[in-house]
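Subject: for your reference before the review

Hello V.,

The reviewers asked for a structural picture of the protein, and I figured it would be easier to keep everything in one thread rather than splitting it across files. Below is the amino acid sequence we used in the manuscript, unchanged from the supplementary table.
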Amino acid sequence: MYKLQLYRNGIFFGLMMNIMVYAFFPTYYELLVPIPYLEIPFLKGIGVVVLIGSLLLTRFSQMQLKGAWRIGIDSSETHGTLVTDGIYKVSRNPIALGMLLSTVGLFLVTPNMITFSIIILVHLIFSIRILLEEEHLYKLHGEVYERYRNRTRKWI
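And here is what came back from the structure prediction:
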């Protein structure tokens, strides 16, 4: 799990560097290998909407977890609350979905090979993290979690 956090931090650094170069050093933007045919104002507008929506989804999902919200897997926890209502009726991982959508939104605003690569890396890291979290939740909640998992989609 520690390595996943290191990768996540590296991706976050890459995203921040992408934003800084795009916003403050436009002459160096070419180094990020832009995709010119996607540099359309309409797509940038959609990207902004996706970014805002993804941030709202992530925050709303965190709020619905209330006291069950954790960053990472809390191995010291013996039994927590399994949240299965609200947004969690539709998706088992709405926070991960919101974060993945934020990288898609950023790609639409700044279409380049760096942001495209980050979408793939974020999806990969969250897929691994979800597998680890689901194993942990099954150990905590057993058949209750299994029934929830069978009736609720992983992403959407």
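For the response letter, the relevant points are probably these. Residues 113 and 150 are 36 Å apart (CA to CA). The mean pLDDT is 89.

Happy to draft the paragraph if you're swamped.

O.
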